[in-house]
Amino acid sequence: MAEIYFCNAKKFAPYYEKAILLLPKARKEKTERFLRQEDRILSLCAGLMVLNIFGKDAFDKMKYGEHEKPFFEHGPFFSISHSGKYAVLAVSDEEIGVDVEMRDEPKIAVSKRCFLDEEQEYANLSTENFLRIWTAKEAVLKLLGTGFSYSPKNFSVLLLSDEHSINGVNMRFFCTNIEEVPLTLAYCGDKKDFIIRELLPENLIN
Fold it and tell me: Is residue 4 within 8 Å of residue 195, measured between CB atoms?
């Protein structure tokens, strides 16, 4: 089973002062360190989803890898991403990484720094292509748990429909949109279908 949960942060904005009190102390402090209110709300949404899906003691059980990838010692596997007004949590019984990006014009500097030549050619054709490559790269690095310590130029994500072996890990991609915002999963195993569910304030705030 693989599931994708998402929150629209704009729907949570009116409840921020009440909802922030539901987070454990360390997570609350982390959320409040963000300078922009928009980022605080996204962090709040991600924290509330973790508590709702994994239980009230989730942050106490959470551990962190060498490059700060969060994980649970005995599973399940999960990955978190947020961009613009969306926070996303992907959950699976196998390794997984997720990235979501608001629509924007292709960034040439990002392409040159992170994409291989053939990926740059594909990404330059359209905003959709650029975002598919970028979210796939980010999702791979999250699955691997390396962050950008492992160069995104070390691997290709073309073709998105094929299975890839990256840094010794076999993985596939699942591409979809959340309310027209591109999202890509990198995941192990052979799943083809994913449950996608929006979580609303009434689901997460008691």
Answer: yes
Which residues constitute the domain of residue 14?
2-204
Task: Specify the number of domains making up the chain.
Answer: 1
**pLDDT tens-digit readout, 1-58:** 689 999 999 999 999 999 999 999 999 999 999 999 999 999 999 999 999 999 999 9
| 3-state DSSP assignment of residue 187 | strand
The CATH number that applies at residue 26 is: 3.90.470.20
User: In residues, how long is the chain?
Assistant: 206
CB atoms under 10 Å from CB of 59, counted, come to 18
- The count of other CB atoms within 10 Å of the CB of residue 114 is 20
CA distance 44 to 180: 23
140-177 pLDDT per residue, tens: 999 999 999 999 999 999 988 889 999 999 999 999 99
Instruction: Count CB neighbours of 189 within 10 A.
Output: 14
Are 123 and 111 contacting, i.e. CB atoms less than 8 angstroms apart? yes
CA angle 138, 142, 147 (to 5 degrees): 80
Counts for the chain of helices (H) and strands (E), in that order: 9, 10
Indicate whether this model's pTM tops 0.90. Answer: yes
